[in-house]
Structures are given as structure tokens and as C-alpha cells.
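Open question from group meeting: does this chain pack into something compact, or does most of it stay loose? Before anyone orders reagents, we agreed to write out a predicted structure and look at it together. Recording both the input and the output here so the notebook holds the full record.
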Amino acid sequence: MIVRQFLHTDPVGISAAGGRASGAVIDPAGEVEPYPRAAEQTGMRILYIIGTHVHAEHVSFGGVLADVAGTVLSAKSNVSLPFKPVHDGDELELGNVVLKVLYTPGHAPEHIRLLVTDLARPQQPWFVVTGHTLIVGDLSRTELAVSAEEGTKNLFRSIERLKALADYLVIMPGAYARSVCGRSLSSKPSSTTGFEKQFNKAFRIETEEEFVVFMTKDIPLAWPRATQLRAIHSGAA
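C-alpha cells returned:
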């Protein structure tokens, strides 16, 4: 399987591309050119551009990339560009690679993650693209689209699903250190579910009550354009 991560500093975030002969780009940000260039270098045709959620920290370039690549996929029903909806449990086939869509609201009500299996390896999931749900060292903020308490309760249920995954699974998040989406983000762009279960304070919390208290204190200030950017991506602006 081909896997590429793109670490951005302006805006701070992580995009990913993967597949075999056919591939997908997940949460594209920054300049558009690196994605088709990486696809050309690896012999991979971009079939899908996938948004894990409606972004509030940068302008998404998914629509621009779709002009030269594949179909935009999203769980959001009113994004501001043509797209194909995906739902919990959907499976996207990219040759020998299968991406399974899992609904994980919390950071945003529409958030999804992608469980990735390479059928050329033992036929068990290999890694999970967690977007802005589970990030190395932390979990993401929850108050950008709903109240902090509602978002946090949704996130608690979502991370219970993540905790049920095998400890060896690699996690590939959509943010890292200096992103305003969390409080204790690591500079590492990947980890494993097992490592995070042991050393990620937020991920280790076992009760919803304790989790709500922990996640709703010391929330970083939202960036000035957060509401506007979500509105742009949702077609409301």
C-alpha cells in the first residue's frame, strides 16, 4: 500500500494520501500541487477526496483538487460543493485497499474516521485515519459547532469505539503540535492505539462525567475565523 502524509505549517495540520493503483486524499490543505504530484510519482490515480469533517481552522482545497482529480466524499449533507455522501459502515475500495467509514462525532457533529485494511497483508485493519478526534497526545476540542458539553459527550461515545480497536493499529491524525484544535498535542504525526491508551490522559478517562469535566476546562481560545470557515465549508456563507 502507498501511504503519504503531508504536514502543513500554514495552516497547521496533516493531510494524507493512500491507496494502490487508485487512491484517496484525506483532508487536503495548503497548496494543491503536492497531491497530484505525489500520485504521479507513485503511479496512483486519485479516485476520492475525503473530508473527515467540516473544517474551521483553514479553507479546504478539496473542491479545487476535485477539478483535477476524483470525487469529493463527505458525511456532511450540506457542504458547499458537489459531493457523494458517505455513512457509518460504508467501505471504499481502492484496489487491494479498503477504507471503512466510521462515524465519530465530537470535534464536529459530522466527523468520520477511516479504518484502513491492505488486503495484500494479513486481512485485518492496519491503521486508522482519526482526523481531529484522537490526536497524538490528546483529543480535539468539541465546542466549535455545538456546546462544549454536547460535543464532549458525543466525543466520549466516539472514543469508546476507538478504544475497542486493536492496540497495534497505527493512528494517523489530522493535527499535530501548534494546532489550536487541542491542548497537549504531540509533534509526532502518528502513534498507535495501544500507546495512546497508556499515555494520552484524555483518552484514558473511563467515565463520561470525569471526561466532560476534563475536556471542558482550559479550552484554548477559538481562532477569529472559526465560525466563518465552518459556514463557508457548509455553504452557509
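Observations to bring back to the group:
The mean pLDDT is 85.
The helical segments are 34-42, 62-66, 148-163, 193-199, 201-204, 208-215, 226-234.
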